[in-house]
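User: Some background: our group keeps a shared notebook of sequences we're curious about, and every so often someone picks one and asks for a predicted structure to add to the entry. Today it's my turn. The entry only has the sequence so far, pasted here. Could you supply the structure so I can complete it?
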Amino acid sequence: MAVGFNLRTLSLEDFHDADNSVLQAIHTYCSQLQKLRFTDNDLCTDTGFTELFTDWSNPPLSFVDFSSSRSIDYNNPDGTEEAVGLGTVGFEALMAHSGSQLETLMIPSCRHIEREALENVFDGTKEYPTIKTADISFVKRTDTPIVAGIFKSCPRITKLTAFGCFSVSDVMVPKGVALIGVPNAQDSIIQEGGYDFDMISAGFGLM
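Assistant: Of course. Here's the predicted structure to add to the notebook entry:
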């Protein structure tokens, strides 16, 4: 990992045998990363992701893709006692570290992120001024107030993808934003926003 210090982009796709030691190596040796992709893994734990982002000397990331970082034991759909993949604490650590400069957030199928973490991160008060694109598809705890909180906390967002978020309905989408994967009354896959933020705040109690 001697090259790690100079890395700006690190893409680890389908590294099925990677465990927490890989995340620890990234934490130890990478201090200039701007973009990190680590996908389709079911060995790394929420603790590993938490330790990656806690007290990390690396500046905030601008691009994160942790797609399908979760347990795939279908005989235990709620996961093991220790959350596998990016979970509640790891997600909060990620946003605390990189939220201020993050532009792209990709966490589809990270199904062990609990609603409490989503509600805390996207509470409508904390602001992530640079996020433009986010994918929360199949993050199963996502509901209408969480999506409203994302719109409020991410004032520059232009695209939010939320396939498989079945608790999202009748959401008011801000002007200039495309909400993808949440059918409206006409069963459209893409909803183009037409509401102002103050209307969303009034509708969902986000001030």
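Suggested note for the entry: The CA atoms of residues 16 and 94 lie 21 Å apart. The two ends are 46 Å apart (CA to CA).
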